[in-house]
Structure formats: C-alpha cells, structure tokens
C-alpha cells in the first residue's frame, strides 16, 4: 500500500499510468512465487512432459535406439497380464497402510495428549523412527523378519512357531505394511497431536456438564474439529503409499510371486531392470493418473467430512 | 600516441597469447580420460587395476584411467541407467548373464582387431568355449577376464562333529555323488548347524542352481535358447531332489534362513573358488575344496564369467579398446589371475595357478580349477535375461513351499517365459 501511495498519479495528468496498483501487486506476487515456479517447471512439469513423450516411444538403451511407437505402450498396458495383480497388490498395500497408519497415529496421539510427567519421552520415542534412514530401518527389519530371525526367536520363547514372514504371500504383505507404518506413524502422530491440542477445552467442559461420555466427546467434538488434519494426513499417507519402493526392494523384491509387487516397484523393474524405458514411462503415467484421481476425490470428499476448515 | 601504443601492445599480446592458448586447447583435446565401471571395491583389486592403468599411461601419457565401483547387486541396472542418462562409461565389466544383451544389442565396440594388433597379445590362446558367449559373427565384443569354476568348500570340523562322512572320504571311496553329499549335509543340518549352502542363491538367484541341476543334465532352455525345457524330466527330477533336500532332509537351509558357511556355521557351500579369500583367519576351521558331486547324468562342472567391454557410446572407444588389450595381455592376465582365473591356455597350468592361489593345494587346483575351466558350462544366460530371470524367480516361489506341485509350477513357468525366449 505504501508503494502505491509513493507512485500515485500526479494531479493534472490525463492518461492513467501503466503500473497501476493492481499490476504492481500482481508483479510482486509473481516475483514471490517465481522461484517456486522455476523449481516446479524443472523438477515436475518438464519431467512429466518428458515421461509422456517417452511413453510414446520404444527406447532401447543398449542399442541406442529411440523409436516412435504411438500408443503401442498403452496397448501393452491393457494387455499386460501381470498388471491386474500388480494393481491389486498396490491397492491392498495402500489401503492397509492408510487404515493401519491413521488409526495407530490417532490412537497414539490421543494417548500421548496427556499432561503427565515424562510424556515427552514417549512422544520422542514414537517419533524417532521418522528420522532414521529408511534403508537402514528396512534392513534391520529384514533381519528381524527372517525365518530364523529375532521375531520368530521371540515367539519361540512363548512356544509359538512363527511363520516365514517374508516368504508367504499373506504375511509378506502384512510385514511390508507394518514396517512402513512403524517407520512413519510418528509423523502423523505429531500432526494429530498438534490438532488435538488445538481443540478448545471449553467444548469438552460443556460436553461433560451435559453428561456426554468420553467416546461421545471424541466422536462429536474431537473428530469433527481435527477433520482437516485427518484429510491432510490421509492425502499424505495415500500418496506416500503409492510411492513405496525401498521397503519392497529390500524386504521382498516383489515376491513371493507378485504378491508384493506394487506399481512403483513394477515400474522400476520394467524400466531399469528390463530396460523397457518406454513402457516404464507408460506405467509412470498410469501412476500419475491414479494419484491425481485419488487426490481429487479426497479434495471433493472434504466438503462432506471436513468441518471447521479455516 | 598513448592510445596507439596501447592498441599495438594489445595486438602483440594477442599474437603471443593466441598460439599459446590454442596449443593449450590442443593439449586439452588430446588428454583422454577413460572410465571403467566395475562391481568390485576390493582394495587389493583396485591396487592392481591402478598399477595396470599406470603402466598403460607410461606409453600413453595423455591417457588417464579411472575405475568406478558400482554396487554388485544393482550393477547392471546402474550401468544401463548411466547409459540412458548419456553418461556411458568408456569400459564396463559385464556379468555373464547379461552378456547376450550387451553383445547382441550393438552396445559394445568390437575388440578382435585391436587385440590381434596388440604386440605379443596372442588372442588365439584364449579358450574358444570361454569366448563363446562374448562373441558374435566371429568377433569378440567383450573379453572374458574372469572364468571361475564353481566348487564345493567343506567344513570338515562341522561334518566330523556331526558324525557324517566328509567329501574327502567319499571321494576316496568313489562315492562322491549328490545322494551322499546331501546325506552328509542332512546329518549336519539336523545337528543344529547348516547343511549345504548354495551361495548367493538365496531363493532369488535361481541360475546358481545350475551348480546342482547340471548334474541331472537339466537346463532351463534349449541350446538355441528358443524353447523352455523346464518341464522336461531332468529338470523336474533335479528340482524334486533339491526340494526334498530342503524340506524333508533339512540338508539345505530353507527360504528366509540365513546361514554363513565362512563363519563356520555350515557343512558345505557351493561357490566360486575366488571366495577362498573369505575363509576365516581368526578362528580357522579344517576346510577342503572338492569338485561338485557326480549327478545322475555323470560328472560335470559349472563356471561363472565376467567380461570387460568397450561401450560404443563412449567418446574414446578406440583408446579404450587399446587399454583393454593392455590390461589383458599375457603379462597383465597373469597378474589378474590371482583374483580372476584366466581363460588363457598358457595360464591354465598348475604352476601358474599355484602361485596365484596359494590357499589351494596342487590336487585342488588340478581337480577343481583346471578341470572345471576346461570342461565347465557357463551359468545360464539369455537375451532379455533380467525379464526372464524375474519371471522364473517369481514362478519358482511356488516351488519353495513344503507342499509344492513342482511339475505343475514348472509348466506355468514355461508358459510365462516361452514367449520371452522366442523374442
């Protein structure tokens, strides 16, 4: 506003100046977001365009050929007999991860939202896996989940013979989900904790005076008031679940069979192991569409499930 | 006047500086930096490679050779990613399983002419069988610098403690066959230690099972590579034998069980002889190295190979080929053979091999190394191997269960890889 006053049009001039307040504000706005726009262009938009371009080609890296094939890779996508199984594994992984992660994060946040001595130690403890190297975390879990590993050793103490966690289809998927949840649940827990601490105490007091039991208070007051955070964490977790790679590569390499071959790992195999960069790019486009549709759907859902959004 | 003097001085300075500058540019253009990707980060290996590079630079002062160690597990992926990114190395080590992909795609610069032209190189003494996978249309596209036989390392202490017969005893009695080898492994396996470890197999790298199924005369595909032969009797019998050894006899650690032979925790392991360097020095055990046991189809051996190729995409392919010729000449091959057994006939004799493999006895060298390299088949490989490997690995997961339908599973695998083999 000060800028506008300094450069106000002097009295007596007939023509209006080019740099109006609105234009100056627009320019300032564009300049502020310019670094971000440059970053998005270089690291998101241009690669996205290139990936689409590659998806229309057959790129043989070793033979150094790059041949335009039109929609052939997209036809291959439809005819790929493994793709349904891969998408199924992706759906199971993502839904399992989101449900388990958000439920556990909310439970931990509620439990840790107490004013007790030493509570910050527990908060730190649950958050600490978030800052541990993902690969190191996964390798350690890989040892624990071996047939003769730590977890089965512990079970044996209680006379239970544990399964071959990473070599059986059901337990392999459960294991990968649990490893991923324990790694990142602390992040969602902190977000929930912050949201819980933002709920005014007066509301609970009023509810208590009205005789509302604890669970009803949680359902009627807490959940609606933290719904924006639930939406945020669910979007972050779903998008993150669709990008899972290191855990699969380290723990199961997509097996047994294709049971833990999620879309990103399948894409990696096609592009970087089998050298089908064109088809790998087509799978990337599919992943992009899935993420975009899910995110759009979640934003639409916010009108129904999110309350008190500022 | 001052102005003119300044102009003159500037012109004179440029007259002197430009030729100097351009000669500097010319020198910079002559400088050649060669990069070789390798999967070893072993200090002793790198020391030897650097010595060889320094020797080459004596005759070619403008050439500098550097080695880039890439992780073993993801080596080929990292290499092809470099190529895709326009950052291809000048030279690269290549796994035997990926040889067909690299040789047939035209990614490699032909080496035959350069090797033949190198003074004292004597290409003719390179074993033809060793060069087969690395050649196309009579031209060698990568030099097989390592031809290493698979053999069985034995922990005699563990076997004797379990009360079983050692392979040496079985060999002396003329009974060194797979049935007796598994009986020994089973006795040790049920005593609490591991029985037989097929090293690096780990229920993923199934091609290493060729060290067993070759004894049945089995092969995953036909000699021309076009037809899946996993449903044929030798393969079904061999995999049934392996399955029983794992799940009934407890002779081979099951899926998800990690046992380290070189830590003294197992009776036997099948691996390449170069792994002798892993034998423990602090807490040594009585060890032996014996040939692979005789199978129903008779005696056999298996070799693993590694080649060095020059990338066509590199900027200095001709100089790189000259470096390969220097690196693998008879003198340097002899040095390399202390780590990587050579396929040169002049180096395949007991005297040379004894010097380069001091841990091995004369008998072990004769029976395991020389015989193995001379008669061994190379580990299975195929064009598009990574995709075939993955399809078979994924399919074989159904075999690694106690209640597996082996014949049915192999039928499914052939259905999956059949079209890939015909490509």
Question: Which keywords apply here?
Answer:
heterodimer; A: mainly alpha; MetI-like fold; two-stranded antiparallel ribbon; 14 helices; 70% helix; flat; B: 423 residues; D-Maltodextrin-Binding Protein, domain 2; 9-stranded mixed beta sheet; globular
Secondary-structure topology with pairs:
The complex is a heterodimer of chains A (310) and B (423).
Chain A: H1 2-6, H2 21-55, E1 57-60, E2 65-68, H3 72-79, H4 83-112, H5 119-127, H6 134-144, H7 150-157, H8 169-197, H9 201-209, H10 214-225, H11 227-241, H12 246-251, H13 263-273, H14 277-305
Antiparallel strand pairs in A: 1-2
Helix pairs in contact in A: 2-14, 3-14, 4-8, 4-11, 11-14, 13-14
Chain B: H1 2-30, E1 32-38, H2 43-59, E2 63-69, H3 75-84, E3 91-95, H4 99-105, H5 112-117, H6 128-131, E4 135-136, E5 139-140, E6 142-155, H7 156-162, H8 167-172, H9 178-189, E7 194-198, H10 210-213, H11 233-247, E8 266-272, E9 287-290, E10 302-310, H12 317-327, H13 330-336, H14 350-356, H15 362-375, E11 377-378, H16 385-396, H17 406-422
Helix pairs in contact in B: 7-9, 16-17
Q: What does the model show?
A:
The complex is a heterodimer of chains A (310) and B (423). Chain A has helices spanning 2-6, 21-55, 72-79, 83-112, 119-127, 134-144, 150-157, 169-197, 201-209, 214-225, 227-241, 246-251, 263-273, 277-305; strands spanning 57-60, 65-68. In chain A, strand 1 and strand 2 (65-68) form a beta hairpin. Chain A contains 14 helices and two strands; from the N terminus they run ααββαααααααααααα. A two-stranded antiparallel sheet of chain A has the order 1-2. By secondary structure, chain A is mainly α. Chain A starts with a helix and ends in a 5-residue tail after the last helix. Chain A has a domain at 82-132 and 164-305: Orthogonal Bundle (MetI-like fold). Chain A is flat, with a radius of gyration of 26 Å. Chain B has a domain at 28-147 and 304-376: D-Maltodextrin-Binding Protein, domain 2 (3-Layer(aba) Sandwich), CATH 3.40.190.10. The relative contact order of chain B is 0.16. Chain B has 17 helices and eleven strands. The termini of chain B are far apart. Chain B is 44% helix and 15% strand. Chain B has helices spanning 2-30, 43-59, 75-84, 99-105, 112-117, 128-131, 156-162, 167-172, 178-189, 210-213, 233-247, 317-327, 330-336, 350-356, 362-375, 385-396, 406-422, and strands at residues 32-38, 63-69, 91-95, 135-136, 139-140, 142-155, 194-198, 266-272, 287-290, 302-310, 377-378. The model of chain B is unreliable at 15-28 (pLDDT under 50). In chain B, the strands form two sheets. In chain B, strands 1, 2, 3, 6, 7, 8, 9, 10 and 11 form a nine-stranded mixed beta sheet that branches. With 423 residues, chain B is of the alpha/beta class.
């Amino acid at each position: 506003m000060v800028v506008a006053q300094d450069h106000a049009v002097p009295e007596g001039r007939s023509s209006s100046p080019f740099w109006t307040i609105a234009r100056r504000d627009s320019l300032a706005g564009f300049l502020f977001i310019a670094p971000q726009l440059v970053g998005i262009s270089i690291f998101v938009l241009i690669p996205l365009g290139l990936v689409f371009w590659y998806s229309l080609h057959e790129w043989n890296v070793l033979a150094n050929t790059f041949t335009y094939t039109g929609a052939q890779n997209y036809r291959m996508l439809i005819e790929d007999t493994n793709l349904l199984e891969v998408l199924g594994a992706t759906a199971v992984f993502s839904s399992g991860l989101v449900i388990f992660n958000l439920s556990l994060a909310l439970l931990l946040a509620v439990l840790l939202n107490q004013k007790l001595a030493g509570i910050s130690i527990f908060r730190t403890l649950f958050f600490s896996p978030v800052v541990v190297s993902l690969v190191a975390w996964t390798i350690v879990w890989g040892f624990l989940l071996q047939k003769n590993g730590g977890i089965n050793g512990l079970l044996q103490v209680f006379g239970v013979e544990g399964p071959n966690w990473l070599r059986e289809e059901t337990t392999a998927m459960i294991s990968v989900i649990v490893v991923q949840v324990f790694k990142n649940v602390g992040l969602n827990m902190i977000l929930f904790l912050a949201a819980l601490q933002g709920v005014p105490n007066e509301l609970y007091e009023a509810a208590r005076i009205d005789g509302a039991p604890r669970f009803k208070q949680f359902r009627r007051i807490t959940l609606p008031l933290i719904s924006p955070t639930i939406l945020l964490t669910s979007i972050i977790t779903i998008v993150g679940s669709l990008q899972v790679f290191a855990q699969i590569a380290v723990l199961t390499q997509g097996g047994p069979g294709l049971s833990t071959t999620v879309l990103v790992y399948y894409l990696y195999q096609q592009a970087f192991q089998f050298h089908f960069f064109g088809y790998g790019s087509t799978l990337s486009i599919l992943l992009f569409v899935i993420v975009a549709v899910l995110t759009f759907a979640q934003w639409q859902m916010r009108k129904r499930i999110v309350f008190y959004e500022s | 006047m001052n102005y003119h003097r300044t102009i003159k001085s500037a012109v004179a300075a440029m007259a002197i500086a430009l030729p100097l500058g351009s000669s500097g540019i010319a020198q910079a253009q002559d400088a050649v930096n060669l990069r070789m990707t390798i999967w070893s980060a072993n200090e002793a290996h790198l020391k030897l490679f650097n010595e060889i590079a320094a020797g080459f630079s004596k005759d070619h002062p403008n050439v500098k050779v550097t080695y880039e160690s890439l992780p073993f597990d993801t080596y080929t992926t990292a290499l092809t990613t470099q190529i895709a990114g326009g950052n291809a190395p000048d030279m690269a080590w290549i796994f035997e399983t990926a040889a067909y992909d690299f040789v047939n795609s035209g990614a490699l610069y032909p080496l035959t002419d350069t090797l033949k032209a190198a003074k004292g190189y004597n290409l003719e003494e390179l074993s033809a069988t060793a060069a087969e996978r690395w050649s196309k249309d009579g031209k060698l596209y990568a030099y097989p610098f390592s031809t290493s036989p698979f053999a069985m390392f034995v922990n005699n202490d563990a076997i004797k403690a379990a009360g079983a017969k050692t392979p040496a005893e079985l060999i002396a009695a003329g009974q060194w066959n797979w049935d007796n080898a598994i009986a020994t492994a089973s006795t040790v396996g049920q005593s609490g230690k591991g029985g037989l470890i097929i090293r690096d197999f780990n229920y993923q790298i199934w091609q290493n099972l060729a060290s067993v199924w070759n004894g049945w005369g089995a092969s995953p595909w036909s000699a021309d590579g076009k037809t899946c032969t996993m449903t044929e009797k030798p393969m079904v019998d061999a995999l049934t034998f392996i399955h029983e050894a794992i799940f009934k006899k407890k002779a081979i650690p099951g899926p998800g069980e990690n046992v380290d032979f070189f830590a003294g925790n197992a009776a036997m392991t099948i691996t390449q002889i170069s792994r002798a360097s892993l034998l423990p020095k602090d807490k040594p055990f009585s060890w032996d190295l014996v040939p692979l046991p005789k199978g129903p189809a008779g005696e056999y051996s298996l070799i693993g190979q590694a080649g060095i190729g020059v990338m066509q995409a590199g900027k200095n392919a001709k100089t790189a080929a000259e470096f390969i010729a220097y690196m693998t000449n008879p003198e340097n091959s002899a040095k390399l053979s202390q780590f990587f057994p050579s396929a040169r006939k002049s180096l395949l004799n007991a005297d040379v091999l004894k010097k380069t493999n001091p841990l091995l006895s004369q008998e072990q060298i004769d029976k395991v190394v020389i015989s193995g390299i001379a008669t061994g088949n190379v580990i299975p490989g195929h064009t598009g191997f990574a995709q075939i490997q993955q399809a078979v690995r994924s399919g074989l997961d159904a075999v690694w269960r106690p209640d597996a339908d082996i014949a049915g599973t192999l039928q499914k695998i052939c259905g999956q890889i059949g079209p890939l083999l015909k490509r």
